[in-house]
Amino acid sequence: MLDAGIQLEPERARLVQALSQTTPDQWPPKDVQRLKEGMDPAVSGIPQKHIFGSDYPYRDAVQHLGLACDGVGLEASLALGGFSTVWGASMLPCREGDVTDWPVSVPQLAPHYQAVLELTGLSAERDALADLFPLYLDAPGHLEASRQAQAMLRAMDRHRAGLRKAKIHHGHARVAIKAARGPQEPGCVYCGMCMYGCPYGYIYSSEQTLAQLKRAGDFRYQPDVIVRAVQESADGVRISGYHRLTREPLEFEAERVYLAGGVIATTGILLRSLQAYDRPVPIKDSQYFLLPVALAKRIPNVRHEALHALSQLYLEILDPKVSPYTVHLQVYTYNDLIGRTVSGAMGPLAKWLPFLARELEGRLLLIQGFIHSAESSRIVATLRKNPADGKDTLLLQAEANPTAKTVVRRVVRKLLGQARRLGVVPLPMLLQMGKPGRSFHSGGSFPMRANPGAFETDLCGRPSGWRRIHAVDASILPSIPATTITLTVMANAHRIGWDSGVTSD
């Protein structure tokens, strides 16, 4: 495995290790605050999510990948584990109706969904959402919902029939968080640190799988490598790049190559390998929006509640009057980022009117929403070469789709009309639309096709005419459904690895 492999700074890593050896009530407050640095929440959201107070997942990506962005919220990662170090851990499969343009069906992905979930683990409930989205796992873990989530869930359960008639389906979130299964198998301790990083490693990251591969043997990991291009021959593949720290040119040879650098890095490598300069390719995106909502009744003392801070509930809107595709909503209840947002918004009033701050904190929830890429804005990627110095730039430019705002407005109206049944009141005046790519649910620059043409790939992620080079990340998804992207990307990669390992050229 060739990887840039940037890691958390040793000082912070030692601090995390120290906290992991004790219980949350023993954590020194100054150490906890150190691990919460760099996160400045606002009503519009978090500008950049850090991990353990560090920006290392984003570090040096612009420089090494030659990125230039215009109106784009998408970023790249050169970190060990990539963005799985800072992700929200939501794991929901696709619905067949959202991938009708794919040459691979959901039933074909089913065994690979199962394989991935056995690898990552999953905490979920066998609730009504399973009718739409199978669990693909026999014994998921159980996480306690926060009291705010329970209040909203009680309201929705009372009005389940009405919500179903309104084509809104609800249930618990499904997250790759390890839940405790007794003293012999510890898990989540509800310390509320999820948004900053779990000191115990209970949130899945591909770093964990990499560590397992290293221990298993017959595997070699080469960090500090920036891959620039790949070249295929009859006998194998030549990989060219350079050392991340010294800039020394590097070359490697392999029988077969799997590109999994994320949509930005993989798109750049493929365009450079094809010498496709000044040839724009579209990157599809699932439009992201953030909608604050208020509970009908305040839940007291949320600041001191033991809880996990990732998504608590899912809402799925399957209403053709809103969208022909699934609209996916993730509900987040109180965490201290919300508390800090309330305090920041109130300014000096937070100090002088603490009862008002507590009222807001006890009621305020956040909904993260996503819509299908067919109705979203997109990004256009163009590889350009500077004639003066010969250096490459991968230009990412936003291309607006007015349909996105129309669909999101329909979603908000739908939620307003069902406020009583949902148990929350949407606050449309605080609605925030993310820039294209801000969802980090983006891909499709080299989409899979049954009969691929130029700048497309076959069912094994191979660009047209190539046999030994496979792209296996989101860059090959033909479209981006609103439901969470990571599970499907991993399942499709598992499928390709399986198929390319047992099928001859």
Task: Please specify the SSE layout and strand pairing.
Blueprint: H1 10-20, H2 29-35, H3 61-65, E1 67-70, H4 106-120, H5 147-158, H6 160-165, E2 168-172, H7 206-216, E3 225-232, E4 237-243, E5 249-254, E6 257-259, H8 263-273, E7 281-285, E8 288-295, E9 313-317, E10 327-332, H9 336-346, H10 349-352, H11 354-363, E11 364-370, E12 378-385, E13 392-399, H12 403-417, H13 419-422, E14 424-426, E15 432-433, E16 442-443, E17 469-471, H14 486-502
Parallel strand pairs: 1-13, 6-17
Antiparallel strand pairs: 2-9, 3-4, 4-5, 7-12, 7-16, 8-11, 8-14, 8-15, 9-10, 10-11, 12-13
Quick rundown:
This protein is α+β, with helices and mostly antiparallel strands. It has helices at 10-20, 29-35, 61-65, 106-120, 147-158, 160-165, 206-216, 263-273, 336-346, 349-352, 354-363, 403-417, 419-422, 486-502, and strands spanning 67-70, 168-172, 225-232, 237-243, 249-254, 257-259, 281-285, 288-295, 313-317, 327-332, 364-370, 378-385, 392-399, 424-426, 432-433, 442-443, 469-471.
